[in-house]
Amino acid sequence: MSILGLKKKQAKTFKVKVSTMDAEMEFSCEVKWKGKDLFDLVCRTIGLRETWFFGLRYTVKDTYAWLKPDKRVLDQEVPKDSPITFHFLAKFFPEKVEDELVQEITQHLFFLQVKKQILDEEIFCSPEASVLLASYAVQAKYGDYDPNFHKPGFLAQDELLPKRVLMQYQMTPDMWEEKITAWYAEHRNITRDEAEMEYLKIAQDLEMYGVSYFSITQNKRDTELLLGVDAQGLHIYSPSNKLSPNKSFPWSGIRNISYSEKEFTIKPLDKKKEVFKFYSSQLRVNKLILQLCIGNHDLFMRRRKVDSIEVQQMKAQAKEEKARKKVERQILAREKQMREEAERAKEEMEHRLFQLQDEARMANDALLRSEETADLLAEKAQIAEEEAKLLAHKAAEAEQERQRLEVTALKTKEEKRLMEQKMREAEQLAVKLVEQSERRLKEADHLKQDLNEAKDAERRAKQKLLEITKSTYPSPDRTVDMASSIRMDFKNSDMKRLSMEIERERLEYMEKSKHLQDQLKELKSEIESLKLEEFLVLLENARMSFVSKCKMQCIQLHRTHTFCTHF
């Protein structure tokens, strides 16, 4: 029994999911609830009081419908799913958003819905207006532009422009972002609700704003047209142009609207004007058209009457709320300004502190370097003092050495003069020896000549002897012995004389050479003792020249002696 009772109790409720433009909610509803009960529950939940603009829309077959407030929810053609899905949307649009939308929640819901319709291209918007609207949307979402925080690329994930506009120009996302940011930077100090209101004020001037379009025909020949229903009245469009209506019927000029099955009749207030009739093939669409016409006409008439007490209270509260928020914003702006000034002062103080710290560190480093430099200079001064003492000592030594060298130079000059005199004497002696050597060579040549003359005389003597021998006819043996005896006697006597002269000259030459060598050695030892290298080289060259000449003379004398010995 309890289980059956539980099932019976559960059957009295059903699940509903309601999607607003920025949230989703689920409710458990009673079966007996009417559309108004569910609608009021949603409005209370989101805190909405301007309920006459909104409704709960649901999808039925190939079109949509609005939940009727005076009929039970389950008795309408709602989907049979669980939970049943409804969309909480604006059903009617105001003529002037700044005058009619009072609550911020109302403005926010309209802003989100109109923004989605523009991005989905349900409302046509030019590229220029799209960029301006996008800048207000960015201001509403991100607040004031801060170049330190809003770096390039911060809008990369946001959908801000219709695809048609993006495809119309050959521009990169970065270029679009740059254009939007340029407008966005000019909206400084605009709050979120003010930015959304500016967005709606621009959007309400668009041709397709707040217009609901339906396909109709004007006559039996099925001439296709479009019927547009909005806050201003009814409009007839051609299917290819939703921006400029072919004919319009303002609410103030309509006396009556009726339909019978598929036929609609619009009766102008001026009875002289022609009644306009059109046809719609779907009964469900006809009911929707009539519903929108009645609702928009009621709001049109309501706007032209004195506001109700409820609306007056709402506007007064909204005015007070705006004034309070304005004061709060001013206080917040002052606090923000004071905070920014304090932060700037803090940053300046920190910067100044860092500068002072850097200056102190640099001064400390300079002090340390100065101390190190002072120590180094003191050390260098001590070293310089020691060097000065050493240089003074060296200067004294140098002065002594200079004086000694001056004395030595004087001695050296005297010795040099003596050496030069001895050199001249040695050169004169060498010249004399050379002259004697040349004279001896000439004497050797004379001797050679005398020897040759002796040989010739010997040969002539032999010739004469032979002639004498032949004339007296001596024996041959005797003749030979006589000739030999004469030749040997002559040869021995001449050779002895010549050898004695040569030996005597050689001995004399050797003695003179030895004496000259002793003089040269003595001169060389004196030059080495004085360490006069230039004199030594000169004397050495003179000695080598003299020795070479003496060797040549000795060789010539030896050759002469050998020649004479041979003969």
Automatic annotation (TrEMBL):
Pfam families: ERM_C, ERM_helical, FERM_C, FERM_M, FERM_N. Residues 315-533 form a coiled coil. The keyword Membrane applies. Keywords: Cell membrane, Cell projection, Coiled coil, Cytoplasm, Membrane, Nucleus, Phosphoprotein, Ubl conjugation. One of its GO terms (cellular component) is cytoplasm. InterPro entries: Band_41_domain, ERM, ERM_C_dom, ERM_FERM_C, ERM_helical, Ez/rad/moesin-like, FERM/acyl-CoA-bd_prot_sf, FERM_2. It is found in: Cell membrane; Cell projection; Cytoplasm; Nucleus. The keyword Signal does not apply. A 1,2-diacyl-sn-glycero-3-phospho-(1D-myo-inositol) binds at K68, P69, D70, K71, K287. One of its GO terms (molecular function) is actin binding. Residues 14-304 form the FERM domain. It is a peripheral membrane protein. PANTHER family: MERLIN/MOESIN/EZRIN/RADIXIN. This is Merlin.
